[in-house]
Amino acid sequence: QWIYLDGQHVTKENAKVSVFDHGFLYGDGIFEGIRIYNGNIFKCKEHLDRLYDSAKSIMLDIPLTYDEMLEAMAETIRLNEMRNGYIRLIVSRGVGNLGLDPRRCPKASVIIIVEQLAIYPEQAYLNGLRAVSVSQRRNLPDALNPKIKSLNYLNNILVKIQSNLAEADEAIMMNAQGYVTEGSGDNIFIVKRGVVYTPPCYLGALEGITRLAIIELCEKLGLPLKEEPFTMHDVYIADEVFFTGTAAEVIAAREIDGRIIGEGHAGPITLQLLEEFRNAVDKDGYK
Ligand code: PLP
User: Fold this and answer.
1) Is any atom of ligand 1 closer than 6 Å to the C-beta of 21?
2) Closest C-alpha to ligand 1, atom 13
3) Going from the N-terminus, what domains does the chain have, and what CATH number goes with each?
4) pLDDT single digits (tens) 91-123
5) Hey, which residues does 189 pair with through a beta bridge?
């Protein structure tokens, strides 16, 4: 496995960063998770746009131009002979001193890891997941703005711990007002009487790229879709609930907080969207 580390490709064993890197010391940095299907980088522009937007928002200078970043990704994929897999792109503030001040970090560090993906077993896509709602609230303003895909995932990790303790597969987060926002690392959709709903991102969700692909797919398939706030009550009484994300793609929930969702397995619209999504990414790489 070859890992891109600041302009060089190194082996996994040699892929090491400094203990003075502010990404390590303070979670000061950003990242992206991207899929490669059939040798094509899925929604590459959307992911790179989100990366550069996150960087601008936190005043992080990515030392590569957009085209150089593309080239570095392509080269890392080629070296690893990867046709189907996952790319993790990380840009940290780089090496500084123990102080917070980013001016002490002269150069941001860029890391690209490509890997096979260990996701849910295929059966889980038919059975659906067990999910629980959690008490952590999705933080809205400033640095924990969900629009910034920063290295500060402590809130999401606490969410994951809470769902682990409940022996659930996934968690559902709400914002401070009690409106559903998203999963621990996925966006959420519900289906009721043939209408697909997803919360608007301003409530406190990452603008997921898979989420957008599913919204586009609903339009293409003529499935009515509404971006509307909803609460856990609406989730409990939904006919179908599913999560979307780069790693998980489209995966149903069969049980949430002890309530059985629909028939207790992945519903027809979820499965149709999953199938159409997979067909689209398979056929033309869905650039
Ligand atoms: N929400 C959070 C908090 C995430 O970390 C992710 C994963 O990147 C998502 C949603 C899903 O976004 P995407 O479809 O772009 O992977």
Assistant:
1) no
2) 208
3) 2-115 (3.30.470.10), 122-284 (3.20.10.10)
4) 999 999 999 999 999 999 999 999 998 789 999
5) 242
Cβ atoms of 47 and 32 within 8 Å: the answer is yes
In this structure, the number of other CB atoms found within 10 A of the CB of residue 221 comes to 13
ipTM: 0.99
Pocket test for ligand 1, best of 37, 89, 119, 246 (most atoms within 8 A of CB): 246
Residues 126, 266: contact at Cβ < 8 Å?
A: yes
Residue 171: φ, ψ to 5°: -120, 155
Instruction: Give the residue among 17, 82, 71 at the shortest CA–CA distance from 48.
Output: 71
Which residues are within 8 A (CB) of 121 and not within 5 positions of it... i.e. 6 or more apart?
none
Q: Which residue has the tokens 């509307």?
A: 228
Tell me the per-residue pLDDT of 233-249, one tens digit each, with 9 for 90 and over: 999 999 999 999 999 99
CA of 21 to the centre of ligand 1 (A): 25
